[in-house]
Amino acid sequence: MSEKEERLPDMTDHTVDEAVSADIAEPLGVITLRDARRRNPLSTTTMRAITAALRSFDDDPRVRVIVIRALGPAFSAGHDLGELVDRTLDDERAVFATCTELMRTVHEVRQPVIAEVAGMAFAAGCQLVATCDLAVAGRSARFSTPGVRIGLFCSTPMVALSRAIGRKRAMHMLLTGEPIGAETAADWGLLSGVVDDDELANSVRELALHIAGSSARTVSIGKQAFYRQVELDESAAYDEMGETMATNAMTCDAQEGMSAFLQKRKPVWTDS
Hints:
Blueprint (H helix, E strand, L loop, with lengths): L14 E3 L2 E6 L2 E6 L10 H15 L6 E6 L3 E3 L12 H20 L4 E5 L2 E3 L1 H8 L2 E5 L3 E3 L10 H11 L1 H10 L3 E2 H7 L4 E3 L4 H13 L3 H14 L4 H16 L2 H11 L10
Parallel strand pairs: 3-4, 4-6, 5-7, 6-8, 7-9, 8-11
Antiparallel strand pairs: 1-2, 2-3, 9-10
């Protein structure tokens, strides 16, 4: 996204922090990283602001899908290293606890969270992309976990990265610190889509609106179920998801959707 902010139709402003804005363009909630001059570092203040915005959107029935995007030439260059030099151990722990809280919140909110990635996403920025439920990038985007080259191994980004792209590819990125391009990132599973740079914003909006057209209750059930089952062994996952589908089938929207399909009409969602 260019440094000059592109606005969505009917967007309602709500600035959370000078480096982060949270806006509603129904049915979307949009979080924008705004510190373009510094390549959108994930300072503790910024991470807390993103977490607060996510939780606010989680509580807002108008928001059915959340998009995280950024101004300038970078999605995020990672942690603010100035917060990690000449600090106490407790200070260091606080930074990474704040980061962990942000990543957990991405998965905990009921809405799908889509990363709209233009430019570089390095270190914790790459971690945020890997954590989001979906991630779409422009073709010029680059991804890296370069901490090893400055003496600080990307151990927390490793958690999300290894779960997104697998062990060997994650270790390659972590041990070399070398960036990979958007096409490679998509092939490895870090991204769900790659588009031309000038089509990125529209493509993400179309994807978000498509998802928003489904029942919010059903989407929420599905998102939470995905993360519950993915860490289980196959037998336990089938047991858990069998019960999930049975209870899902009893919801008003599931009954409405199945009835509409049988009656060859469009469903009318009540999000219940």
